[in-house]
Amino acid sequence: MSNTIETKIISKYFLILTLINTVAAIFFTLPILIPTSGIPLIVGVFPGTWLLIGYFLFLIVGVIGMLGWSIMYNLMGPMFNRSRTYKKLAIIQLVFIELSIYGVASTISYIGWSGGQALRQGFSIASVGFLIEPYVLPTGVFVSLVLVGQLCGIINIFSTIRMKQ
Questions:
Q1: Interaxial angle between packed helices 66-74 and 87-120, expressed in degrees from 0 to 180 and rounded to the nearest 10
Q2: Alpha carbon distance 52, 46 (integer Å)
Q3: How confident is the model at residue 41 (pLDDT cuts 50, 70, 90)?
Q4: Domain ranges of the chain
Q5: By the 8 A CB rule, do 154 and 97 touch?
Q6: In this predicted model, what pLDDT tens digit does every residue of 2-23 receive, in sequence order?
Q7: Which residues touch 100 (CB under 8 Å, ≥6 apart)?
Q8: CATH dotted code for 4-162
Q9: Phi/psi zone of residue 135: left (φ > 0), alpha (ψ -120 to 50 degrees), beta?
């Protein structure tokens, strides 16, 4: 079994995930457009702003970031004359980033939603803090995994450039 894979194939996988994440982002946007959902009211106050932050993080990392990695791997051939990259690093990168960005966006959005709803119902800031506290650590773990995935990608790009042909 080869320990390398064609950069065009990895680029294609990142592009496919970009498209999937774009469709997911569209579905995440729909509740915001429905005034009766209460989301526009929740987003206006802490911790409801976390809902918005989770959405923007998903767009930046899950859509734009994945497109960026697709372009990066696609340009390895024309720019550096490299048509293969390290398979394990590329797969670890792809899986870590994809799963973790859904985890980050989900936990941050849930914190924003539940905290914002609690504030709307009259809970105190301290009560809301206790309500969202169990979700802060998992959010941090997901953020760390996204960063590990990004680091694997950077290491893979530099390793591919230095790879002997």
A1: 160
A2: 11
A3: low
A4: 4-162
A5: no
A6: 899 999 999 999 999 999 999 9
A7: 142, 143, 145, 146, 149
A8: 1.20.120
A9: alpha
